[in-house]
TrEMBL record:
<dbReference type="InterPro" id="IPR039651">
    <property type="entry name" value="FixC-like"/>
</dbReference>
<dbReference type="Pfam" id="PF12831">
    <property type="entry name" value="FAD_oxidored"/>
</dbReference>
<feature type="domain" description="FixC-like C-terminal">
    <location>
        <begin position="386"/>
        <end position="441"/>
    </location>
</feature>
<keyword id="KW-0285">Flavoprotein</keyword>
<keyword id="KW-0560">Oxidoreductase</keyword>
<dbReference type="Pfam" id="PF26311">
    <property type="entry name" value="ETF-QO_FixC_C"/>
</dbReference>
<keyword id="KW-0274">FAD</keyword>
<comment type="similarity">
    <text>Belongs to the ETF-QO/FixC family.</text>
</comment>
<dbReference type="InterPro" id="IPR036188">
    <property type="entry name" value="FAD/NAD-bd_sf"/>
</dbReference>
<dbReference type="InterPro" id="IPR059103">
    <property type="entry name" value="FixC-like_C"/>
</dbReference>
<dbReference type="GO" id="GO:0016491">
    <property type="term" value="F:oxidoreductase activity"/>
</dbReference>
<protein>
    <submittedName>
        <fullName>Electron transfer flavoprotein</fullName>
    </submittedName>
</protein>
Amino acid sequence: MRTRRGRERRVTRFDVVVVGAGPAGSAAALTAAQAGASVLLLERGPFPGAKNVHGGVIYGRVLDDLVPRWWEQAPIQRWVTRRSLMMATGAQALSVDYRNGAWAEPPYNGAIAYRSEFDSWLAGVAERAGARLVCSTTATALLRGPDGSVRGVRTDREGGEVEAGVVIACDGANSLLAREAGLRPSGSAEDFALGAKEVLALPRDEIDRRFGLTGREGAAMEVLGCTADVPASAFLHTALDTVSVGVLVPAADLARSRIRPEELIAEVKAHPAIAPYLRGAELKEYAAHLVPDGSRAVLPRLAGPGILVCGDAAGLVLTAGPWLEGVNFAIGSGIAAGEAAAAAVRAGDTGAAALAGYRSRLESSFVLGDLHRFRDVPHLMRSERMRRYPRLACDAAERLLTVDNPRPKPGVTTVLREVAAAHGARMRDLARDGWQLLRSFG
């Protein structure tokens, strides 16, 4: 095999083989290498991050212990100091806009980065810790022992069988290795969402002016309701001299709508509340990628004899309304997988029972904790009632904010009842859905 630096090495066995050098794979490789395991990190792209699509926000606090003072090393474009949630109709928009200048200093809440740069950096940290990174290499199948346990991978390189104590599958939403291991069923459209985005170039000072930013401050905006009858969420994220604008839409709903994702993005860009941010911008990049649909009620099995699954391959993504998080869940699950794999190798037992500690680690962390807490929210956000709520909210705001002298101003309860009735909604549904959202925070 040829390493990233071009040296020929014939390698036949490692303690741990990690497939996929995205955030999950690099975190797993780094953690296992720090624990003293010999680690091979395989990446099918020419470099880590080459095949990844991501809107741009990374919640990096999960790195605090893994890479101390990571913010001094990582290739960050901006720090998120403004977060907005917008509910929109064809011509209306109602926003909750939160700003915090303290988020531009450690400890940072969110960062905006290009995945090609961030993934390459994190894989490089894993390399410096002792993991061996090999790019342009695809793991095509699992190697099995006489008892059926996983004992390595077969790659598309000549003589490319690599034995391992533990294989960590981080090979994306459509994980072939997880399916071959019997840890997840064959995927259907209902299991995935499509993320699509455009990267638009604007001068840095123009981005600062339009979004009200200074220095390295950044904005992250999520939008609901501006994609007509397709239940998509949209986003805008500011880098130094580009703005990413895109959509996340359930794959099955997209197929039923017969609308192309770039048409949905065009709707978002044309909305009167969004168009002023993007006027005159130049298209630099378009990309689309399947991601796990976080609304799935049941996660796949996460471990088997000799194998662990994490990141997108395990469906560990949070898509609950304004919470669109994936990279931090990938890193968190990668850390847990690296710890569990290294511990199993040290103990000389890589069977399913020995690797069960991986799930226990996830359950005691934010990864499964947050997924459990918000497990009902994705279904609620995609319900028929919820799809009417952006217009209901905008119409209610219009009624409350319209000055209609000489008539007295209506009360909030009166407005809600009248607007709800006009949209075929019942107050009991509003109360129940509101309570369900509040209960998720309980």
